[in-house]
Amino acid sequence: MLLTGLKLFRACFCKILVCPIANVNFPYLRCMLSKKTKYGLKALTFLASQEGRVPVQISEIAKHENISQKFLESILLTLRKTGILGSKKGKGGGYYLIKDPKDIPMTTVMRVLEGPIAMVPCVSLNFYEKCGDCPDEASCSVHKLMLQVRDSTLEVFRNNTLADLVP
Amino acid sequence: MLLTGLKLFRACFCKILVCPIANVNFPYLRCMLSKKTKYGLKALTFLASQEGRVPVQISEIAKHENISQKFLESILLTLRKTGILGSKKGKGGGYYLIKDPKDIPMTTVMRVLEGPIAMVPCVSLNFYEKCGDCPDEASCSVHKLMLQVRDSTLEVFRNNTLADLVP
DNA sequence: TGCTTACTCTATTAAATCGATAGGATAATA
DNA sequence: TATTATCCTATCGATTTAATAGAGTAAGCA
User: pTM, whole model, 2 decimals?
Assistant: First the structure.
């Protein structure tokens, strides 16, 4: 069969990842951390590294961290609405941290930007939801495994505050 | 503004998750474990719980675990190609474990089904890739945090084999 | 008062993935 | 040779992500 159009293009230029464990192809790079969270973390770290609490303009953060300014706008807006950032309009305006970086745990930031920390809803502390296909959680192998993953990930986020991320 | 069509429907019937930390809305349940992996794990556990190494039909596994049979077919095929399962065609055929469940670490299963264990490519052991926007990994806050998450998650997967998941 | 600056908000878009389904090809058994 | 069950390719609709556009609003300054 001949490849045409988009398929031909992808076959030629798109990345195919091959799992070194067992030669399985992944047509893309599965990324579990969204760019929203990634950019949000970078912006927060940048703000935490500033001297004092002077407002910093979106454009300055975007330029410094190589982020699309418009996309960053919406992220910072979320962080302000959730009480992590403060903002000031007009000339000399911008975003600034409200609290001390030491008092901003990663659990909060991750839940605000990324949502649930757990890999499946049925082991989530804040976003719990029962699985439709699973009759009994106690005997579910996935549940058992993901519970351990959640706990270990949670421990990392609990042990890190924004202050720990500043170089 | 009046909501119409799909938007009206979604506004009325679709689930909106509200982050209890800070009243952020998530229009869906962000799920970091794909159904492919979830179903694969359940199927493997079911096979591991069988007496002996008798081939089990796809239809039997699908029925027992409430999984779409056609979807499960492709998952089991992947597991066979990667040397985790064996198969037998024709009457009395099906899928069976090749190795002892104790010798199947979760790291292998996860990488085969889900892909990278790390949340970002720049901290992945087997699927490493440099970030386009980040000039220096050593000073990147996201890198620093995600490295810790990767290590803790990896430890869980290394400490669990398929045998540990069987109830 | 009026101008500039910079945040606020809604809407829209293209590209991509996920989960699922359909249908036939192939191989093994009776 | 008929039946059984895996193997394989192709396709679909729904949903999400990341990014962009453009107008609205409030604060500061002359």
Answer: 0.88
